[in-house]
Amino acid sequence: MSAYAGKPCILCCAITGSVPRKSDNPAVPISLSEQIESSHAAFEAGASIIHAHVRNDDETPSSDPDRFAALQEGLRTHCPDVIIQFSTGGRSGAGAERGSMLPLRPDMASLAVGSNNFPTRVYENPPELIAWLANEMQTYEVTPEIEAFDLSHILAAIRMHKAGALYGRLYVQFVLGVKNAMPADKAVFDFYVQTMQSRAPDAPWCAAGVGAAQVMVNEWAIAAGGHTRA
Amino acid sequence: MSAYAGKPCILCCAITGSVPRKSDNPAVPISLSEQIESSHAAFEAGASIIHAHVRNDDETPSSDPDRFAALQEGLRTHCPDVIIQFSTGGRSGAGAERGSMLPLRPDMASLAVGSNNFPTRVYENPPELIAWLANEMQTYEVTPEIEAFDLSHILAAIRMHKAGALYGRLYVQFVLGVKNAMPADKAVFDFYVQTMQSRAPDAPWCAAGVGAAQVMVNEWAIAAGGHTRA
Ligand SMILES: [Zn+2]
Ligand SMILES: [Zn+2]
Ligand SMILES: [Zn+2]
Ligand SMILES: [Zn+2]
Question: Do A111 and A40 belong to one domain?
Fold first, then answer.
């Protein structure tokens, strides 16, 4: 019997992200209506979580709460019961801006709990900002999805959960394949899974492989009883 | 037979560090003569590497190459053949300042290869600065000691070494027990050792436990065939 026998697998679809533009791939949904229809298609195909970033009219990342509100309203109509997860990632804004959509009370929001390098810069998540975002999520009853770019981020998430600093159920996403952060490495993935199983056995987890690593990491996650991000 | 049977263990002594002041501990060597005599005592007691930071007259951390030069001269006289390792850490300067003592050609220098959180802030090591410091170390024939504050830093070090970006022999230090970075955790330590053994079996490694974790982490390192920092 495999690790996933009988256990449903959550499919999370990140429809837009913060980086790709139409010039990279014309299919990237940028406008509100494109995002809603792309989410609708993903929902019909079986996605249960929509991970969303919003964009300005010039395609640059935005953290404008009005844009998030409009997307939320569209998703509620077109994708009934889908779990809406907004990004509080650092590419779309700086400091407290990153949490400006949390008062909309999305079901979930991404939460970084440490810092690391990205391909060309430092992904800065100062301890104070992390504590503030986690606290805002408690205020607005938003369940965080922890974005773990390194091993210490997984341990930090478990520690914060045990200390009561995270709203709702602990849910950790392993992010693999980002240049200068963690590569998509099977031995590391296995240790991540073991770390979750030994220290937070009741907590579900998922794995995201970036770019070329996506399908491979999804396969690792499904085989190990985890959930997936596409 | 234990892992360390017959294998000499390198003791590295960090005489000053960048944080503690006389008000924290009157024994912290701050002035040039205090640093030289403290190093001399460590050398007589068996230390083979002196890891050094320098301080301004007001005890704040400095990256002034003249202060490093004076220390280097004193160490050469008082501790013949000791391995001199200068810190390029981020508490003593910003940007290229951090490498301003490398033209002195110390035997070794510390090198961060990733970013992470510290107790109250982000320890920022942008990819461009890392590449510049590594390149300066090649220019001046300085062997880096990689400071691994998280798992991805170990993998980055091995990758950089294989790519020829690091001068000399690969030498990795696991730093454990820094709040908001990696805790002093035995399962993590064991995975670190396994990672080195499987991917860079010829590379020596050492482990530093910060504060209360120091002696425990030294014991783990010695028992696993590694080297130590005190
Ligand atoms: Zn995202
Ligand atoms: Zn629709
Ligand atoms: Zn140091
Ligand atoms: Zn002396």
Answer: no
